[in-house]
Every structure is written in structure tokens, then in C-alpha cells.
């Protein structure tokens, strides 16, 4: 258990020196470090956050971290960014949540915007593709490491391991929607605690008298939080509709991605197929294949994978700029998309976190959330396998098996250089214990070197 957060949340937010001894300035530098290392999608990002916040800094205990993570897994939107916001709020109130969640977005937003400008204005340059080639191999190793770490901590009983396997099969073979997997796992955990199959580790560190938690008991506080964040989120949407009408590209982006913010359960992969279909076929914002290029940018830059939506917003506005210069319109479209995508994330945390903290002593709820964590490990493993297929093979096809469809690689599309680089990255991560930044830099440099000598 963390000694530093045993009383962390019992200190009033107005205190100049929090009782846990971590100043806001110190926390800010750590949140920025986490943001700069947040590669590899949610699995890698959560692993990096856990290593720094729990293992290295010991700001929160293992149980408190997983309690917060389980809640974030239930929310629409990027769970890693919401987890950073939750932990920042837990340490330093609303300011801490804004800093932690905002910094988590910032490096990726800057990187995706720069790459969007390069991609659309100058085409997919060879050296950029080579860097992505190397980074994808590193990301694969980092994701697998994250699955191993989270699984090692969460799958401690046969029931937990069984839940992970069932979740993997459900999403990989039967294509069960992620929200149903989460709800099913939670129900199993809750019932298991009732009949004694699944004793829960109740999260009891910290004080239930915390000012932030107690605020949830007031009916006025949630109303104020909801009102402020709903206005911040939806006022720009309403203003664009009033000023330009529903057919303007900026109005379309604001409305469409506000809707997406409500249904993006299961992270980026759960919604990108739907977004790609509408962006290409219905709105005509992107050309076929460009969504995958945007996803490649998001996978190989820090920050949430859902940041790929900023690329969509940039391209859409760039190609329908109106009276604005195309690049300026693209930048505004990308920023607008980012705003309506992430503003709701702060709403969910600031509105719900106090209630979740009050319930952390509830054994049945803890068991349900622990079961959800086990199921999420299976989902993470499915994403890792999907990513491995698309990294090592250039083509993947659907194979009918007993009335179901499985993704299988086209063996003739095997890429030996990608496989060799991925294997080297795994050796560096699992056996040499190399840091995330070092692995990413080495793989990116290797990809560029292979391009310069004409091997890729």
C-alpha cells in the first residue's frame, strides 16, 4: 500500500501543501513525463502510468489504481487519458485532473497535427513511412509487455484467468461488442462475490471523509459540475450550427464527433471502423486507405489512439476550407474535433469519480470491477494479436470457420524485416529491460536505416 496516499485525499483542496507531500508542480512534471512516454495504445499507456505512479513514485496503491482503472474502463472515450485525469483529481482536485488529463493529450495532439500537415501537403514521404515501420515493431513489443504486466497482476485466480480467456474468445471469434463483455464480466464478478467464489480485495486506503468525496453527497455539486462541462463541450457546437448551418464542414465535425464521444466504449479500435465508413462513404472527408494511415500516425505517437480523429478533422476541413486558407481550416478542424472528443472525458471523471471513491469499500462492487479488469486483459490480448498480424503481414483476410469469421494472415505477404525488428524489440523489452523511449528510438532509427539502404 502506498504510504503517500494513505491520507492523500483527506486534505482539503485549498491546502497549499497537500498532506501526501506531492506538490502540484512536482506532479505536473511527472504527468508530462508520462504523456511523453504514452506510446503503444491504452495497454502500453496504462502500463507506463502504473510503473511510474504506483511502482516508482508510490503515489497510489495497486488496489486504488485498479479501482480507478476499472471505472474508466466503463466509460466512453480513451480510458488511459481518463485514468490520468482521475489520478490527477485524486491527488490535487480539479486543477490536478485538468493538468494530468490535459498533458496526456498535448504531445499527441501536437504530433498528429504536424504529421497531418506533412501528410496532406507533401504526401506520404518515404522517410516518414520508414519511421512508422520501425515504430510499429516497437509498439508491438510494448503492447505485449503491457498485457503481460497487467495480466500478471489481475489474473491471480483460476476464475480471473477463465474470464480473460472467455473475453478473448468472445471478441476475437464471436465479435461480441465490448460493452457486453464488460457488463457480462461485471455481472459474473458481482454474483461470484455473493456466492463466495470470488473474494474481493476491498480498497480501503485513504479516508472516506475526503472533501472531494464528501462533495458528491451534495446535490448541488454534481449539478454545477455537469452544467459547467456541458456548456464547455456543447456551446461551440451550438454556436457553429447557428452561425454556419448544419451543412458546413465545421458544424458536421462538431456534431458527428460529439455523438462519437458518447459511444466510444472499448477505446479507439471499437469505433474506428464505424468512423472510417462514415468519413469515407457518407461525408466524403477521407479517401479509402487514409484512415489506416491516420491510425498509423496515432499508433506511433504519444497519446490516446482516438487522437486519430484529429487527423480526420484536419483532412475534412482542409478539403472544404470555405473562405479560410486550407491549412488554417485544417488546423481549426483538427482542434475542433479534439475538443468535442475530449471535453466529455473530463465531465465523466469530475462527475463520477467522487461516487466511485465513496464505493471503494463495497466488496461486491470491488469484485465486479476486478472481474471487468480480468476481461479487459483478454480484450487487450486480442488487440495485441490484431496489431501483430497487421505489423508482420501486409495482408489479412477473413476465413470462414464453422459459420464464424476469423482474421488470418496471407502468408505470402509476410514481412521478414518487420518480424525481425519486432523480435528484436521484444528481446529488448522483456529480457534487456530497455526503457520505452529507448526501444522506440532504436526501432525508428532502424526503420529509417533500412529505408536508406533500400531494404524497405
UniProtKB/TrEMBL annotation:
Residue intervals passing through the bilayer: 98-122, 128-150, 162-191, 226-244, 256-280, 300-317, 329-351, 363-389, 410-431, 437-455
UniProt-listed InterPro entries: Chr_Tranpt_l_chain, Chromate_transpt
Gene Ontology molecular-function annotations: chromate transmembrane transporter activity
One GO location term (cellular component): plasma membrane
Keywords, ordered alphabetically: Cell membrane, Membrane, Transmembrane, Transmembrane helix
Membrane topology: Multi-pass membrane protein
Pfam families per UniProt: Chromate_transp (PF02417)
Region: Disordered, residue numbers: 1-20
Keyword S-adenosyl-L-methionine set for record: no
Keyword Transmembrane tagged: yes
Polar residues biased stretches: 1-17
Domain of life: Bacteria
Family that this chain belongs to: Belongs to the chromate ion transporter (CHR) (TC 2.A.51) family.
Protein name (Swiss-Prot/TrEMBL): Chromate efflux transporter
Amino acid at each position: 500500500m502506498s504510504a503517500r496516499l494513505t491520507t492523500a485525499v483527506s486534505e482539503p483542496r485549498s491546502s497549499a501543501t497537500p498532506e501526501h507531500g506531492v506538490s502540484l508542480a512536482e506532479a505536473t512534471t511527472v504527468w508530462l513525463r508520462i504523456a511523453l512516454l504514452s506510446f503503444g495504445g491504452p495497454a502500453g499507456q496504462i502500463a507506463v502510468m502504473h510503473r511510474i505512479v504506483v511502482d516508482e513514485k508510490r503515489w497510489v496503491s495497486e488496489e486504488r489504481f485498479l479501482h480507478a482503472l476499472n471505472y474508466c474502463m466503463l466509460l466512453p472515450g480513451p480510458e488511459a487519458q481518463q485514468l490520468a485525469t482521475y489520478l490527477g483529481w485524486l491527488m490535487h482536485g480539479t486543477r490536478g485532473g485538468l493538468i494530468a488529463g490535459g498533458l496526456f493529450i498535448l504531445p499527441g495532439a501536437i504530433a498528429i497535427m504536424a504529421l497531418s500537415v506533412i501528410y496532406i501537403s507533401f504526401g506520404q514521404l518515404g522517410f516518414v513511412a520508414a519511421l512508422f515501420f520501425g515504430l510499429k515493431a516497437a509498439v508491438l513489443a510494448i503492447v505485449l509487455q503491457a498485457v503481460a504486466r497487467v495480466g500478471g497482476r489481475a489474473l491471480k485466480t483460476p476464475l480471473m484467468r477463465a474470464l480473460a480467456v472467455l473475453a478473448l474468445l468472445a471478441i476475437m471469434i464471436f465479435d461480441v461488442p465490448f460493452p457486453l463483455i464488460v457488463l457480462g464480466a461485471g455481472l459474473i464478478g458481482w454474483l461470484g462475490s455473493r456466492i463466495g467464489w470470488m473474494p474481493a480485495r476491498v480498497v480501503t486506503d485513504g479516508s472516506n471523509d475526503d472533501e472531494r468525496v464528501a462533495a458528491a453527497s451534495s446535490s448541488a455539486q454534481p449539478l454545477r459540475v455537469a452544467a459547467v462541462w456541458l456548456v464547455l463541450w456543447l456551446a461551440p457546437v451550438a454556436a457553429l450550427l447557428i452561425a454556419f448551418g448544419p451543412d458546413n464542414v465545421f458544424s458536421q465535425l462538431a456534431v458527428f464527433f460529439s455523438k462519437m464521444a458518447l459511444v466510444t466504449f472499448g477505446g479507439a479500435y471499437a469505433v474506428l471502423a464505424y468512423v472510417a465508413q462514415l468519413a469515407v462513404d457518407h461525408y466524403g472527408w477521407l479517401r479509402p486507405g487514409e484512415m489506416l494511415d491516420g491510425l498509423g500516425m496515432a499508433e506511433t505517437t504519444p497519446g490516446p489512439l482516438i487522437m486519430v480523429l484529429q487527423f480526420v478533422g484536419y483532412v475534412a476541413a482542409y478539403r472544404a476550407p470555405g473562405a479560410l486558407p486550407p491549412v488554417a481550416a485544417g488546423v481549426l478542424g483538427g482542434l475542433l474535433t479534439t475538443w468535442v472528443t475530449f471535453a466529455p472525458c473530463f465531465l465523466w471523471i469530475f462527475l463520477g469519480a467522487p461516487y466511485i471513491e465513496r464505493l471503494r469499500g463495497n466488496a461486491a462492487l470491488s469484485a465486479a470491477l476486478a472481474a471487468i479488469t480480468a476481461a479487459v486483459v483478454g480484450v487487450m490480448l486480442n488487440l495485441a494479436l490484431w496489431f501483430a498480424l497487421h505489423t508482420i503481414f501486409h495482408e489479412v483476410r477473413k476465413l470462414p470457420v464453422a459459420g464464424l469469421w476469423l482474421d488470418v494472415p496471407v502468408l505470402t505477404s509476410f514481412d521478414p524485416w518487420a518480424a525481425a525488428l519486432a523480435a528484436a524489440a521484444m528481446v529488448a523489452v522483456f529480457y534487456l529491460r530497455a526503457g520505452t523511449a529507448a526501444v522506440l528510438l532504436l526501432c525508428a532509427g532502424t526503420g529509417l536505416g533500412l529505408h536508406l539502404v533500400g531494404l524497405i
